[in-house]
Amino acid sequence: MRLLTSIIFLFIATWSSGQGMVTLSVDFSDEPEQPPESFAAVRSYPDSLIMARGIDSLLTALFNYGYIDVEKKAVHRKNGAFTVFISQGVLYQWKLRNANINEKVLSANRLNDYFEGTPLPFSRFNQIRITILNWYENNGFPFARIFTDSIQQNNNLLNATLRIDPSLPIVFENVNLKGNVSLARGFTANQTGISAGAPFSEEKARMAATLLSDLPFIRIVGEPTIEFTPGTAVITVPVARRPANRFEGLAGVTNDPLQGNRLQLTGYINLSLLNLFERGERLTMNWEGLTHGTQRLLLQVNYPFLLSTPV
Q1: DSSP summary character for residue 311
Q2: Which of 15, 208, 214, 302 could form a disulfide with 192 if both were Cys (CB 3.0 to 4.6 A apart)?
Q3: From CA 143, how far away is CA 119, in angstroms rounded?
Q4: Which pLDDT belongs to residue 13?
């Protein structure tokens, strides 16, 4: 009896779940303006409550795409399926004017056309603002702000002026290592791409610790910090020494009968030393003392950024 009850309960639960699934079709009433097909795709939802949230999300997506007059007209149900009727209105675009944005920004990001009359898709407006702001943040103005002024509507065009407030210019002072690792300032500058007096770059500041961690003898042990003073920025990276020097070897003395029983040093030594002179250099020595007076010695020196060039 208990088994029969469990089977009946499972059947009822499964049937109820199936009954809860609803489908939603979308009907756009405004002609000839029709949104992309992705907006008109048939959707499925677990129940009508989640479907209502889905309709709200659809309206928000249409607004962000550029149908800012979008409106839900009605929701009808027929044969268990739902249809939402939407008046999307016209598709709006931006027509931008430049108040004081550096022309280098527009050229570097190929934005000139949008400030010379070419309409900008509504959905790209925030992306353009972020692109412009990122350029300033990576070219010495980390506290820059961007504003939209004088918005005016002309049919389906939104005329707007973009203005930048660059704020105080900032340059790098240096990159400090906090811990038991020392590096020459010139080597640190080459490794991180951050040199004293260079315009502050948000991207370079963010990558500094990652580039330092690429060195085999450095381990990052905390979050880097940036200290701003009027006009300058100092980056501090907490570090610890990572064991990287290696030494192994075996040596002995033997008689060589072919050399009149003269004493001969035999064995091998493998030595690898890193950052002896705080320039990130690597010194490698491999020595082998073979029989019959034969010896092999290989010395290698890797000195990065010699004369400030990566070699």
Answers
A1: -
A2: 208
A3: 29
A4: 37
String of DSSP letters for 210-228? HHHHTSTTEEE-S--EEEE
Give the C-alpha distances (Å, rounded to integers) separating 123 from 201, 225, 245: 28, 35, 55
Task: Read off the pTM.
Answer: 0.72
Rounded to the nearest integer, the mean pLDDT of the chain is 83
Angle (nearest 5°) at CA 242 between 239 and 246? 155
User: Residue 302 pairs with which residues in a beta bridge?
Assistant: 282
**Nearest by Cα to 66 from 87, 42, 89, 85:** 89
E-state strands within 91-245: 93-98, 120-121, 145-154, 157-165, 171-179, 218-220, 225-229, 232-241
* Residues 90-112: tens digit of each pLDDT: 999 999 999 999 999 999 999 99
What is the number of other CB atoms lying within 10 angstroms of the CB of residue 62? 22
Burial class (CB in 10 A: 0-12, 13-18, 19+), 254: middle
Least confident range of 85-99, 116-130, 226-240, 284-298: 284-298
Residue position matching structure tokens 């003392």:
289
- Cα angle vertex 87, ends 85, 88, to 5°? 125
Mean pLDDT of 200-227: 91
DSSP state of 308: T
Which helix (H) or strand (E) element contains residue 288? strand 282-289
What DSSP character marks residue 123? G
> Cβ(186)–Cβ(308) under 8 Å?
yes
Cα(76)–Cα(89) distance, integer angstroms: 21
- Is residue 83 within 8 A of residue 24, CB to CB? The reply is yes
pLDDT score at 7 = 41
